[in-house]
Design goal:
Layout (H helix, E strand, L loop, with lengths): L1 E5 L11 H6 L4 H11 L3 H7 L2 H4 L2 H19 L7 E4 L3 H8 L5 H21 L3 E6 L3 H10 L4 E8 L2 E6 L1 H13 L4 E4 L12 H11 L11 E2 L6 E2 L2 H10 L5 E2 H10 L4 E4 L4 H9 L4 E4 L1
Parallel strand pairs: 1-2, 1-10, 2-7, 4-9, 10-11
Antiparallel strand pairs: 3-5, 3-6, 4-5, 7-8
């Protein structure tokens, strides 16, 4: 069985999507539509913007969404899809791919989510750090010993976990992780504590927006970050999207469940981030990338 994967923030790169716009005329409709819906030229920033411009959460998230969903649209007739999954922001892209959300509503939610998260970052200083080479349980216990807010945020793959929270707490956790024998432990160049309690204000704004948008019955199940299991119920999907804002992305657990459920082929759209995680889980699995 085949599952489609959609990356999240952190998979952006300079010039993203420019190859599509220049070589695939049919892609221009979606780029132009996105610029009109957002009220600014996202495509221009994607094609010509600097790394610094693309790092702004309010730009990064719609840019990653647009790059991924257009690549999916251009290739969907030549690939099979039995389920979908997305990492953090990518969960919304996946919901457009499986027809739970329209392109317009998906982009609307991505843009609002990004703006709300940017505002939360501006209101409360926070950061994230990657810990490599320690068991998840060790890192979880380590976070509990640190004064302040620091929690497990992204279970990316076996041996790689990202923590998130208040800057002093995250920095202290990095020191402790190194003392515990982590292969690497470093603070990431991000401007906020995503998937932590510091995103509570963004969670409230997203919940309000989701309540005003219709979610259709998906054509294929989605493995959601919060539960790590496949979902088909639109009400559950909405609730999980909201909870994701302040809870960890259980990508490792999701991949383990996908494999156990019989998925042997994984196709990623827009980056090579998630396909790399799949390979770290099991190199015998088939991985494709568009």
């Amino acid at each position: 069985m085949s599952i489609l994967l959609f990356p999240g923030q952190g998979s952006q790169y300079e010039g993203m999507g420019k190859d599509l716009y220049e070589t695939m005329p049919t892609s221009r409709t979606w780029f132009d539509q996105a610029d009109e819906l957002l009220g600014f030229s996202l495509s221009k920033i994607m094609f010509e913007g600097s790394c610094e411009e693309l790092l702004q959460t309010s730009v990064t998230q719609p840019a990653v969404f647009l790059n991924s969903i257009i690549r999916y649209y251009l290739n969907k007739d030549s690939i099979s899809m039995d389920a979908v999954a997305g990492h953090s922001l990518g969960e919304l892209t996946a919901l457009v791919a499986n027809n739970t959300l329209s392109f317009e509503n998906g982009l609307k939610l991505v843009s609002l989510r990004a703006s709300a998260m940017q505002q939360a970052c501006n209101d409360t200083a926070g950061t994230m750090a990657a810990i490599l080479g320690l068991d998840d349980v060790i890192i979880e216990n380590l976070c509990r010993t640190v004064e302040g807010v620091v929690v497990a945020a992204n279970y990316n793959c076996p041996g790689q976990l990202v923590i998130s929270g208040e800057i002093p707490a995250v920095e202290k956790a990095v020191v402790l992780a190194k003392e515990q024998g982590a292969k690497r432990a470093l603070v990431l160049p991000v401007n906020g504590a995503f998937h932590s309690p510091l995103m509570s204000s963004a969670k409230e704004k997203l919940a309000e927006a989701i309540s005003e948008i219709k979610f259709e019955n998906p054509t294929k199940p989605i493995y959601q970050n919060v539960s790590s299991i496949p979902e088909l119920n639109p009400n559950v999907i909405q609730s999980n999207l909201i909870e994701q804002m302040t809870n960890p992305v259980k990508w490792t657990q999701s991949m383990q469940n996908m494999k156990s459920d019989g998925y042997s082929e994984y196709t990623e759209f827009g980056a090579k981030v998630l396909s790399g995680f799949v390979r770290r889980l099991d190199r015998t699995l088939v991985v494709n990338q568009f």
